[in-house]
Specification:
Jelly Rolls, vision, alpha+beta, transmembrane, Helix Hairpins, Ion_trans_dom, single chain, 53% helix
Length: 705
């Protein structure tokens, strides 16, 4: 037994090892095949990783020795949190900040660091634009706080200077279709631009006149000429934001507030020029000066009315100019706000117009309400899930390369998992991605029906679909989720093999990608090798799907004895070796047991043949009434001449008469070869007979052979 168990154990180990080797060879063959089909596939071999230094074994618990070096301590992962243990540690961002190297060239369109720098420049520009008029008109700048105002002013000047020296000279630009990144070329391009001239003008050192006329904020007015940085920041920020219309509304509102701010400053200056409280039109000097003047500016700019009438010529001229400017500025703001809101709601307006047109069409043709409700539901779900009714309208405007990049990011991970397309040319798959179209199905909508011609392949992007079958066609066979693919065999099936074999309905809302058979055929014209591979895979998959049906056989042929699986060859060799050795181990016992099973199977075969013969007898018995009738006719007409014998089959019964020896009457009939005898025995009771069938031993031996 020990020898047998060791042998079986070693054979199991060898078998497992052989299976592993076969699996490795198959994987290697597939990789080589993919490499030959698509040479651009990168190698799967990972780059060697540096092995970490092994920490010294931990010492026994106790106080560390004074001579222990820091290099002997194991290096663990650094941990940072807000607790006291981590308060005095250096945070990782400080280390990254120290090791940061400023780039030699900056892409102004995609570099987020440049957008952040523009934000600081715009903040400095807004400081000058908003506070220079306030410091000039209102008495908020005093000798007591002049140092605070000057500190912030020069900090803004420093930001302007850094923008000129560090950032603007490193901006990339396009010349002749090439992106220029050379330092000298970038610096020369900036020095020759209009922006450099405006940046120099806005930094004119007019502050030296402070020593002669005092600290007058109007001398800093050139700082407001750096408006080009403000508009550039708007463009870059709108390109980053997902909902740029919100920023546009805020910016337009800021324009309106700034115009009111400047108007309030001018009103206070006019009141101070005429004298505070000198007339009923000017500011009387009570309360918060800025709030009172801003309130007056709002009423004037919006032309609400209720303002006091100007008295002097200066007041009349000022009020007229204020009215004209207010009407013009307010109308411009209203028009710009309308454009911003209209652009923000353009998609919603288009969706509403399409839905209204569809409803009007359905009402005109008196479409049932159930269908109308499903159409409305489709419109609402498609709009809320995608933000548009047809996403292909946006992609049409893009060049083919950009459309391909978007399609790869959205659909490549799903399509690459389809077994039918694995091993095909990668460029063919890229071309196929551009032909996919998105379709939304409502709950319980039929995606495809059984028996219809299949012309599309479906890829589930979101939602679930159910495959129905069974006798009633309503049994859920399987539920497919996002990322699943079905209908791919119909794309390449030919000769009537492209009919749907089951019903597929949407379980809830489902968003599917569809690939038409026509589009795939147009693509495969340019990729003959992939076309051959796809045809071969489609035939193999179709054969596997139909294989169980072919093995069942016709429904009318009953399978009495099921087929028995063959004994594995390796097991047969082991049994043969055991028989030659004459051992009495487990294998010998198994061999003896198999002989018994074989004998039992042969007995079952003989029983099955006997059952077939009984079926034949049943057909013979059905002809007995006619035989009995013939015997009675022959018995009554014994004196009549006997007609010649008609040709009969070998198994046709030949009736014979036997004189009655007992009270009961016995009639029997034999076949021409005397192998089958059928007897009819009458009893004492009327309308009661006994039927008996006998088979000779020769016939049984013949059937066994």
């Amino acid at each position: 037994k020990r020898v047998g168990s060791a042998t079986s154990l070693s054979s199991a180990v060898i078998n497992n090892r052989l299976q592993e080797l076969v699996k490795l060879f198959k994987e290697r063959t597939e990789k080589v095949k993919e490499k030959l089909i698509d040479p651009d596939i990168s190698s799967d071999d990972e780059s060697p990783v540096a092995s970490p230094t092994k920490a010294a074994p931990a010492a026994a618990p106790g106080p560390p020795s004074g001579g222990e070096s820091e290099g002997d301590k194991p290096e663990g992962d650094e941990h940072y949190c807000e607790m006291l243990c981590c308060t005095f540690k250096h945070h990782p961002w400080l280390k990254h900040l120290k090791n940061y190297q400023f780039p030699s060239s900056i892409d102004p369109l995609t570099n987020l660091m440049y957008v952040l720098w523009l934000f600081f420049v715009v903040v400095a520009w807004n400081w000058n634009c908003w506070l220079i008029p306030v410091r000039w008109a209102f008495p908020y700048q005093t000798p007591a706080n002049i140092h605070c105002w000057l500190l912030v002013d020069y900090l803004c000047d420093l930001i302007y200077l850094l923008d000129i020296l560090v950032f603007q000279t490193r901006l990339q630009f396009v010349q002749g279709g090439d992106i220029i990144t050379d330092k000298k070329a970038m610096k020369k391009n900036y020095l020759q631009s209009q922006r450099f001239k405006m940046d120099v003008v806005c930094l004119l050192p007019l502050d030296f006149f402070y020593f002669k006329v005092g600290v007058n904020p109007l001398l800093r007015f050139p700082r407001c000429l750096k408006y080009m940085a403000f508009f550039e920041f708007n463009n870059r920020l709108e390109a980053i934001l997902s909902k740029a219309y919100i920023y546009r509304v805020i910016r337009t509102t800021a324009y309106l507030l700034y115009s009111l701010h400047v108007n309030s400053c001018l009103y206070y200056w006019a009141s101070a020029y005429e004298g505070l409280g000198s007339t009923t039109w000017v500011y009387d000097g009570e309360g918060n000066s800025y709030i009172r003047c801003y309130y007056w500016a709002v009423k004037t700019l919006i032309t609400i009315g209720g303002l006091p009438d100007p008295k002097t010529l200066f007041e009349i001229v000022f009020q007229l100019l204020n009215y004209f400017t207010g009407v013009f500025a307010f109308s411009v703001m209203i028009g710009q706000m309308r454009d911003v809101v209209g652009a923000a709601t353009a998609g919603q307006t288009y969706y509403r117009s399409c839905m209204d047109s569809t409803i009007k069409y359905m009402n005109f043709y008196k479409i049932p309400k159930t269908v109308q409700n499903r159409v409305k539901t489709w419109y609402e779900y498609t709009w809320h899930s995608q933000g548009m009714l047809d996403e292909s309208e946006l992609l049409v405007q893009l060049p083919d390369k950009m459309r391909l990049d978007i399609a790869i990011d959205v659909n490549y991970n799903i399509v690459s998992k389809v077994a039918l397309f694995q091993g095909c040319d990668r460029q063919m798959i890229f071309d196929m991605l551009k032909r996919l179209r998105s379709v939304v199905y409502l709950p319980n909508d039929y995606v495809c029906k059984k028996g219809e011609i299949g012309r599309e392949m479906y890829i589930i992007q979101a939602g679930q679909v159910q495959v129905l079958g069974g006798p009633d066609g309503k049994t859920v066979l399987v539920t497919l989720k996002a990322g699943s693919v079905f209908g791919e065999i119909s794309l390449l099936a030919a000769g009537g093999g492209n009919r749907r074999t089951a019903n597929v309905i949407a379980h809830g809302f489902a968003n599917l990608f569809i690939l038409d058979k026509k589009d795939l055929n147009e693509i495969l014209v340019h990729y003959p090798e992939s076309q051959k591979l796809l045809r071969k895979k489609a035939k193999k998959m179709l054969k596997n799907n139909n294989k169980p049906k072919d093995e069942k056989g016709p429904p009318g042929d009953p399978l009495i004895i099921p087929p028995k699986a063959d004994t594995p060859k390796l097991f047969q060799a082991a049994l043969a070796a055991t028989g030659r050795l004459g051992g009495k181990g487990p294998l010998a016992q198994l061999r003896w047991r198999l002989k018994e099973l074989k004998a039992m199977q042969e007995a079952q075969v003989s029983v099955g043949r006997m059952a077939i013969w009984l079926c034949f007898l049943q057909r013979q018995v059905t002809a007995l009434p006619r035989c009995v009738q013939r015997l009675s006719v022959i018995k009554g007409l014994s004196s009549s001449p006997i007609p010649p014998k008609s040709p009969v089959h070998q198994r046709s019964p030949v009736t014979s008469h036997k004189p009655r020896t007992h009270l009961e009457e016995e009639i029997f009939s034999k076949s021409s070869d005397s192998l089958v005898t059928i007897r009819v025995i009458s009893t004492t009771q009327e309308d009661e007979e006994i039927l008996a069938a006998e088979i000779s031993e020769k016939e049984e031996e013949k059937e066994e052979k």
